[in-house]
Design brief:
Layout: E1 2-4, H1 10-17, H2 21-29, H3 35-53, E2 60-68, E3 75-83, E4 97-103, E5 109-111, E6 123-124, E7 130-131, E8 139-142, E9 150-158, E10 161-167, E11 173-176, E12 188-205, E13 218-222, E14 234-241, E15 244-245, E16 256-261, E17 271-275, E18 280-284, E19 289-300, E20 316-327
Parallel strand pairs: 12-20
Antiparallel strand pairs: 1-17, 2-3, 3-8, 4-5, 4-9, 6-7, 9-12, 10-11, 10-12, 13-14, 14-15, 14-18, 16-17, 16-19, 19-20
Amino acid sequence: MMRIKSCQTMASCFAAASSGGWIKYQQLKKGKINPMNKKMMALVIALGCIVLASPAAAHTLWVNLYQSQAHMSGHAIASIGWGHSIPMDDIARDLNLKSYSLVDPDLMITELPMPSSDKPPQIKSPSGLTVQSGDIGVRKMVFSKESKPGVYQVALVTKDNFYSVYLDQKGRKRWIMKTMDQVKDAKKVLAGMNYKAYAKAYFKVKQWSEPKPLGHDLEIIPLTDLSKVRTGDKVDFKVTFMGKPLNTNPAQGIEYITAMSNTFGGPDKFTLSSVVFGGKGSFRMPTAGQWVVNVYTRQTVSPDNRLKHLVGKCTMVMYSSSISFNVKP
């Protein structure tokens, strides 16, 4: 486990979020990549422009979830987190969501009402502020004597979100929320990305048990009872990609999970990072408060792999998965 500072440049941010990208980015700067590979790396860095410039890829998706026993029955309340700072940063209106659901201990699914994507008119205040309104998906789940004991999951899944980077007729680099084959009037289409995000949070009724996987393409599963985590405790996670353990292969790149909190990192926005080995990673939690654990992995689109149906639409798929939980003092 180590502390890493948030990325500061387009290229380094994209590289840090991708498998092995940071090493390759440093090699590119030092001229250690042969000319045949430099063109491909240029496209990777071009996609980095998408990652920071586009609303979706520059943001993280997570589920805020708080459990209350203020009243006898008790309840849990969930909302959608989107942006850079937890618990609330932005309104996820430009992200195409596929599902928002409550999953019980037996994997029975209750579809929650989807947040509205409507954009009410902005309000200008006399003091020069702009007031924006939107639906952040606040949903309250009330317990009863009949509630089944066990761990419940609130889960978010996005649709395919496509972003393309291209040169306009004047040679200026631009990005657009379309597939590569939908880009019109471009001098040259450089690259494209399909961004797919998954997010989960948990609450228990009476007792904790290891949560069952939901079958997400990229998924983080806690191996520790998240309802009892306190400052200084070690928390273990399992990470799967397409149902199999996500693993680091030093010859190809480094897979890792990160953890961020509004109670850690100070003004420099430091986060925690843990390399994934054997499909597992862990953190020792340094502070109390809400934490979001996140993982990214990317896959290149090719006519020879399972992503061949995306040829011509994008050059890579970026997968993101997060879980959030609260650490007690």
